[in-house]
Design goal:
Blueprint lengths: L2 E11 L6 H9 L4 E7 L5 E7 L1 H14 L4 E12 L5 E3 L1
Parallel strand pairs: 2-5
Antiparallel strand pairs: 1-3, 1-4, 2-3
Helix pairs in contact: 1-2
């Protein structure tokens, strides 16, 4: 497995029921990233992305920009690890 940059991002705000996951999927097609996006029971959205650090950063920024009116808070953590995703999916 290749060593890649990975980020776990939690989006808080009015982020469920507004097409957030679909917007993230569409944005993922514009970048060389893999990962997933899912709704959490507490009302947040969890985004996991991996790839080259600049690609992941640009992808997360694109998602934030597309959904800026709905996002109140973004929590990010990341680092390097073995690749765990193939493609980008909605969970």
């Amino acid at each position: 497995m290749a060593d890649v940059h990975h980020e776990t991002v939690f989006f808080t705000g009015h982020v469920q029921g507004v097409g957030f996951r679909y917007a993230a999927l569409q944005a993922a097609r514009e970048f060389e990233v893999a990962g997933s996006v899912s709704n959490l029971a507490d009302g947040r959205v969890l985004l996991e992305a991996e790839g080259g650090a600049p690609e992941v950063a640009a992808f997360v920024a694109a998602v934030e920009e597309k959904m800026h009116g709905y996002v109140r808070k973004v929590e990010r953590s990341g680092g390097r690890r073995d690749a765990q995703f193939a493609g980008f999916v909605i969970k």
